[in-house]
């Protein structure tokens, strides 16, 4: 891949600048509500890593749009996902972020008790109410599946095609799904997880991840490792373009020191290269020769987003206790720099100056496609037709 | 002695609620394939012990985790305090037969013999 000459220049006769979304898109609770309904609750959502649920009864609760979702495994070890809502009077079943139940999920209010398949197995006086169907009044399930070692859920009645949504994002970036398969991400283990609380709208975080116009300014360490980032073009600007490590760089580490080898089976030409994928609406994947950095966002409100980031290595690296801190530190610092920038931007979204939004330079113009995508999904006409149907 | 169900109706490691007698009883078949019968209703609150968790010769109430000894009917910890009755159970010709206890059952508040 080569840099196209016009990537930082607008096509002849066209403006260098195109508008962003208006400020209200980042601060209006009604807009966030609509995004939850049309995006987070209507698509596939990456909710947890498979290893967060080591066995039957192990659970995790996550916020998906406006809903609390309870993830667990059945007695047979199969993934299960339910609304974290008691079918009786609506109390939240599990308040903890994670844990393990030995026998059942029991509502702490009236002791309605559900097995790990969600079936209602006991409740006070249940034997006197034989007309209560134990499946109909079991925990309400949502769609769940595993991909790349991660647990994905969909709250849609009919989930979108995984191939046409999640996998299509990989194809758009890397050309084919096979090009991510070479990293064998499902076989990797979590070497480090860091959770960030970011006081910014989720779209600011996506936009930040999509462009590299800021890289040379706020990411000195990353730009040292990937010198071409100084040109302001994101690795995501091209199809299957890997950003090359600098000449003196030995590994994807904070100081360019040696990494942890190369992932087994990785295509040779991907060594010494960095690739990045945005899987809308809430996953960012960074691929480097010896590890994978997997971010997922949990938007909690129009101005608060939790970002959970995993650094994935071969199980061998993790179990042997090898020091991964130099590689963790590089992207941890990038995350801190990015999220600080997002938090610096968020308060201005309600400035009168930003009422009509800001502008995107040519190397950011692809962010306009993200804005068009959000706008199309949250478009009010679609709302009316859906409600009518 | 009265016939309550076929042995095959009770999977190993589980219990079945029998409503043909009043108050209902629970028949359990342990992992060692021993068969026991006790009153089905927890003495603390109306819950079916047949829906509880069987471990060895103990069944744990599904609601509040008091455990009852299938051999004696005694309870190990609150919130239930009173024992359940134990009935003599035998397996004959592939059927489970029970000699009901003559004692007065310890039913929880709100559960009466008439209610079944």
Number of discrete helical segments of chain A: 10
Task: Tell me the number of helical segments of chain B per DSSP (H or I, 4 or more residues long).
Answer: 0
At the fourth level of CATH, the homologous superfamily of the largest domain in chain A is Naphthalene 1,2-dioxygenase Alpha Subunit, Chain A, domain 1
**Structural class by secondary-structure content of chain A:** alpha+beta
Low-confidence stretches of chain B: none
Radius of gyration of chain A: 22 Å
Question: Largest interface by residue count?
Answer: A-B, 13 and 17 residues
State the CATH topology of the largest domain in chain A: Naphthalene 1,2-dioxygenase Alpha Subunit, Chain A, domain 1
Give unreliable regions of chain A as ranges: 1-5, 383-389
CATH-defined topology of chain B: Rieske Iron-sulfur Protein
Q: State the end-to-end distance of chain B.
A: 20 Å
Number of strands of chain B: 9
Radius of gyration of chain B from CA coordinates? 13 Å
Helix content of chain B: under 10%
Describe the strand arrangement of the main beta sheet of chain B, using strand numbers.
1-9-8-4-3-2
Helix and strand succession of chain B? EEEEEEEEE
Overall number of strands of chain A:
18
Mean pLDDT of chain B: 93
Roughly what fraction of the amino acids of chain B lie in strands?
35-45%
Structural class of chain B: mainly beta
Keywords (chain B): 2Fe-2S, Dioxygenase, Iron, Iron-sulfur, Metal-binding, Oxidoreductase
Organism (chain B): Nocardioides psychrotolerans
Protein name (chain B): 3-phenylpropionate/trans-cinnamate dioxygenase ferredoxin subunit
Pfam family, one (chain B): Rieske
């Amino acid at each position: 891949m080569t840099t196209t000459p016009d990537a930082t220049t607008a096509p002849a006769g066209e403006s260098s600048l195109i508008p962003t979304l208006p400020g209200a898109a980042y601060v209006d609770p009604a807009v966030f509500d609509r995004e939850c309904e049309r995006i987070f609750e209507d698509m596939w959502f990456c909710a947890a890593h498979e290893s967060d649920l080591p066995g039957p009864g192990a659970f995790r609760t996550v916020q998906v749009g406006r809903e609390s979702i309870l993830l667990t495994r059945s007695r047979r070890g199969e993934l299960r996902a339910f609304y974290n809502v008691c079918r009786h009077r609506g109390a939240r079943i599990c308040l903890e972020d994670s844990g393990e139940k030995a026998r059942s999920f029991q509502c702490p209010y009236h002791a309605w008790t559900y097995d790990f398949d969600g079936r209602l197995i006991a409740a006070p006086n249940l034997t006197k109410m034989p007309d209560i169907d134990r499946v109909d009044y079991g925990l309400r399930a949502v769609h769940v599946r595993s991909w790349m070692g991660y647990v994905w859920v969909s709250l849609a009645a009919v989930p979108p095609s995984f191939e046409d949504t999640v996998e299509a994002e990989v194809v758009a970036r890397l050309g084919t799904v096979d090009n991510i398969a070479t990293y064998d991400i499902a076989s990797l283990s979590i070497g480090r997880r860091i959770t960030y609380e970011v006081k910014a709208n989720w779209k600011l975080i996506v936009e930040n991840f999509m462009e590299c116009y800021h890289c040379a300014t706020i990411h000195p360490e990353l730009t040292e490792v990937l010198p071409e980032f100084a040109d302001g073009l994101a690795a995501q600007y091209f199809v299957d373009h890997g950003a090359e490590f600098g000449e003196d760089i030995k590994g994807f580490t904070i100081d360019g020191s040696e990494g942890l080898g190369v992932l087994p089976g990785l295509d040779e030409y991907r060594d010494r290269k960095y690739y990045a994928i945005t899987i809308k609406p809430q996953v960012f994947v960074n691929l480097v020769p010896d590890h994978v950095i997997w971010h997922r966002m949990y938007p909690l409100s129009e101005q608060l987003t939790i970002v959970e980031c995993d650094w994935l290595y071969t199980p061998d690296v993790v179990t042997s206790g090898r020091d991964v801190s130099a590689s963790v530190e590089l992207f941890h610092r990038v995350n801190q720099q990015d999220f600080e920038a997002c938090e610096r931007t968020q308060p201005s979204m309600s400035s009168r100056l930003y009422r009509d939004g800001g502008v995107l330079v040519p190397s950011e113009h692809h962010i306009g496609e993200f804005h068009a995508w959000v706008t199309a999904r949250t478009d009010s006409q679609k709302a009316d037709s859906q409600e009518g149907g | 002695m009265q016939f309550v169900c076929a042995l095959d109706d009770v999977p190993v490691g589980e219990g079945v609620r029998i409503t043909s007698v009043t108050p209902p009883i629970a028949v359990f078949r342990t992992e060692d394939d021993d068969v026991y019968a006790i009153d089905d209703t927890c003495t603390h609150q109306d819950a079916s012990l047949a829906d509880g968790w069987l471990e060895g010769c103990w069944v744990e109430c599904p609601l509040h985790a008091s455990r009852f000894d299938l051999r004696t009917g005694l309870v190990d910890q609150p919130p239930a305090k009173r024992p359940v009755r134990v009935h003599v159970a035998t397996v004959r010709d592939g059927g489970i037969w029970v000699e009901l206890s003559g004692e007065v059952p310890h039913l929880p508040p709100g559960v009466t013999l008439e209610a079944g």
